[in-house]
Amino acid sequence: xxKNKKLKIVAVVGPTASGKSTLAVELAKQFNGVIISADxxxxxxxxxIGTAKISxxxxxxxxxxxxxxxxPDDDFNVSLYQKSVMNLLEAIKNKNRKTNRPVLPFIVGGTxxxxxxxxxxxxxxxxxxxxxxxxxxxxxxxxxxxxxxxKLDPNTTTDLKNKRRVIRAIEILKAGSKxxxxxxxxxxxxxxxxPKFEVLKIGVGKDRNISKKRIENRIWNMDIPxxxxxxxxxxxxxxxxxxxxxxxxxxxxxxxxxxxxITEPELIYRLIKLHTQYAKRQMxxxxxxxxxxxxxxxxxxxxxxxxxxx
Length: 310
What we know:
By secondary structure, the protein is α/β, with parallel strands linked by helices.
């Protein structure tokens, strides 16, 4: 392999419960691959059932990275994720130079921003967290924060329904910088750099009706007792359930069930609703990317990769 040749990577993307993990393992087995998770919740330890994290048995011997790399109260973010994965890919590239059987990295996940941070080389703001400002802003209602942000940046494209992102956008603007990540204005986002890799993007789970059925099946077949045990362990460690790590995917609802605020059928209904809404947001992101090749099965994905590698 020539020293200046770009590393080839495959991104396998799609909404929750679309079968990305299973497909990626099958592809990695055929193409001598390793899997790098691109999931903003699966990076956290102790959150296995609620995030549908792949098990050791399901990995089938394929190396997986970026799982369980932080505690739920760590200030982990996309910038840290990007740095870690870039270092890992650089190591793979260096190793590939010395072998006749190169490793093919698969970036697999449903967090569009995490995927894009790698394959599109997004540039993020260097503004450090202002914990005092965050604490003050967090006390205010989201509606008030949204108004404040729009005054600071009338052209903001920040998700005004996401309190964490609104606070981060205000934090960056207050520091005298313009956001260059998910909080950026239209003329700055996405802030892409020169591609460092040759990328093939494969998408699964585009059919909304099938996706909804898969989500319902996943929740109904979820090991609720284990999920409750997992949530109790998180409560015991006194993690903040309003934090970015725990504020999504139903841990607060499980906590309500533990505290006898809702029944088990209500918990199931809430989880299905949450995951369905999450899948919808994921697909809104991915549908904007016209470079994604949507496939219906593993056979189609294998043919696509084989042809691309040629």
